[in-house]
């Protein structure tokens, strides 16, 4: 029997949205794969993702594809802060959406791969100098996959 999935778009930070895709029939909290799109820092959004949302959701994972602020209007580290904000949103809202806050991984391509790697490397730092108060919510990840 093939699983069906549901998709919902949510604002996770002012002006930034995410796309959450999960199996309809999932029981218990799901591990989360967060997709970070490429685009040379200047283009793209949460819809620029492989067609693997459905594939992973059908196999028991939640997929979250996120927006982040783009250059040149937003200069680095704005993009990294957005990724960290999305990770915190996932943790804060995990119960409501059936997500496992202790099993979150990042997957990115090109500029998104760069951001995924940076977020993974910075995960142990509770609050970066540029971040506002985080309420003690972690931006840690448990795995990172980067491509080109």
Mind explaining what this structure looks like?
The protein has helices at residues 52-58, 78-92, 94-97, 111-121; strands spanning 5-13, 16-23, 30-36, 62-66, 99-109, 143-147. The longest helix is centred in the middle third of the chain and has 15 residues, at 78-92. The protein is built from four helices and six strands. Helix content is 25%, strand content 30%. A six-stranded mixed sheet has the order 1-2-4-3-5-6. α1 (52-58) links the parallel β3 (30-36) and β4 (62-66). With 148 residues, it is an alpha/beta fold. α2 (78-92) packs across α4. The model has no long low-confidence stretch (mean pLDDT 92).
Radius of gyration: 14 Å
Biggest sheet architecture: 6 strands, mixed
Q: Which strand order do you get reading across the main beta sheet?
A: 1-2-4-3-5-6
Note the beta-strand portion: 25-35%
The count of strands amounts to: 6
Detail the poorly predicted runs.
Answer: none
Helical residue percent band: 25-40%
Q: Total helix count?
A: 4
Question: What is the molecular shape?
Answer: globular
What integer is the average pLDDT? Answer: 92
Content-based structural category: alpha/beta
Termini Cα gap? 35 Å
Order of helices and strands: EEEHEHHEHE
List keywords for this structure.
148 residues, alpha/beta, 6-stranded mixed sheet
What layout of secondary structure does this protein have?
Elements (H helix, E strand, L loop, with lengths): L4 E9 L2 E8 L6 E7 L15 H7 L3 E5 L11 H15 L1 H4 L1 E11 L1 H11 L21 E5 L1
Parallel strand pairs: 3-4, 3-5, 5-6
Antiparallel strand pairs: 1-2, 2-4
Helix pairs in contact: 2-4
């Amino acid at each position: 029997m093939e699983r069906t999935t549901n998709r919902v778009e949510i604002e996770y930070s002012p002006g930034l949205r995410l796309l959450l895709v999960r199996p309809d029939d999932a029981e218990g909290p799901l591990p989360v794969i967060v997709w970070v799109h490429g685009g040379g820092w200047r283009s793209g959004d949460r819809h620029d993702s492989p067609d693997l949302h459905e594939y992973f959701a059908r196999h028991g994972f939640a997929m979250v594809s996120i927006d982040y602020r783009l250059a040149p209007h937003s200069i680095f580290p704005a993009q990294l802060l957005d990724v960290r904000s999305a990770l915190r949103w996932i943790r804060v809202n995990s119960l409501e959406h059936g997500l496992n806050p202790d099993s979150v991984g990042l997957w990115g391509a090109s500029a998104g791969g760069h951001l995924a790697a940076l977020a993974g490397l910075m995960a142990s730092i509770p609050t970066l100098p540029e971040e506002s108060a985080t309420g003690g919510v972690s931006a840690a990840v448990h795995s990172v996959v980067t491509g080109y």
